[in-house]
Specification:
This protein is mostly helical. Strands 1-2-3 form a three-stranded antiparallel sheet, covered by helices on one side. Strand 1 and strand 2 form a beta hairpin. The protein has two domains: 148 residues, no CATH class; 147 residues, no CATH class. The protein starts with a helix and ends with a helix. It is globular, with a radius of gyration of 25 Å. Helix 3 packs across helix 7 and helix 6 packs antiparallel against helix 7.
């Protein structure tokens, strides 16, 4: 009579006994069919996600790059993925069903974010149902990257935008006063000699914050080793993006004292792109600095 431990190990041993040449073709036949069902079932939700990338009020311009980036990450891991023996899981099918129910609830309650997250739940469940949970773990980073293609929940997005507006206004006021400029702040409006700067939603820093987070995720995947260092850089990208936006407001205020026409239009937009690039460079410099500190510490200990 088999012991409980032997009973638990039996399915694993049986799965391991299946020749790899037979397991993968069977999974390969199921994947296209499952993908078609996912696309058909979630088509309205996927169309909404795609539309949000071109919505000026969503600030999700980077979203169009998220899916190609995640696909490339998965392709880059192709050798490791081939080594994973497919072990279909019935729990994956349950997760697909759970995602479908969540999507229905999201549509009925008109909670858009809820429905869009349901697609990712069903996607993970489909992979687990066809290839097993080991495959899900192997694809963990690309799957987590897909979270960045979905606009944050409305209540969180609005609260975060307002907080960033006020924070950027306050930082701009303090720095401009420290530089010797006369500034009067009322909420998110900065009044200076001859000009009035209004830190609108588009200038709150939410756009640059989302873009920098996506850039940091890509940079972590290709250039950063170690989970702790990746987490540190991802956390550091938030204050770096906020400081970059504050610098944008400060520069706008200074330039507005001498060339008021430059605080709006193409010049203002160009300055926004420059500050995003500068914040991205800040993330890279932070990585270099941390590596330098680590080398110094290791050489000191040695």
């Amino acid at each position: 009579m088999a012991t409980p431990a032997e009973s638990r190990e039996a399915p694993v041993a049986a799965a391991a006994a299946i020749p790899r040449s037979e397991a993968w073709p069977e999974a390969a036949r199921c994947l296209p069919l499952v993908s078609v069902f996912l696309l058909i079932g979630f088509w309205p939700i996927l169309a909404g996600i795609y539309g949000s990338w071109f919505d000026d009020k969503a600030y999700m311009e980077h979203g169009i790059l998220v899916v190609p980036a995640a696909v490339y990450m998965a392709w880059d891991k192709r050798d490791a993925l081939r080594a994973v023996l497919p072990q279909p899981s019935a729990w994956g099918a349950g997760l697909v069903l759970c995602g479908a129910l969540v999507a229905c609830v999201g549509i009925l309650t008109q909670w858009i974010w809820f429905g869009r997250m349901a697609f990712l739940v069903s996607l993970v469940g489909s992979i687990a149902a066809v290839c097993g949970w080991r495959m899900v773990r192997a694809l963990g980073y690309p799957l987590a990257t897909l979270l960045l293609m979905i606009t944050p929940p409305t209540f969180l997005f609005e609260r975060l935008t307002l907080s960033l507006q006020l924070l950027a206004s306050r930082l701009g006021e303090l720095c401009l006063e420290a530089l010797g400029f006369s500034v009067l702040r009322e909420g998110n409006i900065l009044e200076m000699v001859g000009i009035k700067l209004s830190v609108e939603e588009a200038c709150s820093g939410i756009r640059s914050l989302l873009a920098i987070l996506f850039m940091c995720v890509l940079y972590n995947y290709f250039f950063v080793k170690g989970r702790a260092l990746k987490t540190l850089l991802l956390m550091a990208s938030v204050p770096i993006a906020i400081l970059g936006n504050a610098v944008r407001i400060i520069v706008t205020g200074i330039v507005g004292q001498y060339h008021p026409a430059w605080v709006s239009g193409a010049a203002h937009e160009t300055l926004g792109y420059i500050t995003v690039a500068a914040a991205a460079a800040g993330v890279v410099l932070t990585h270099i600095l941390v590596l330098g500190i680590r080398r110094s510490w290791e050489s000191h200990r040695a």
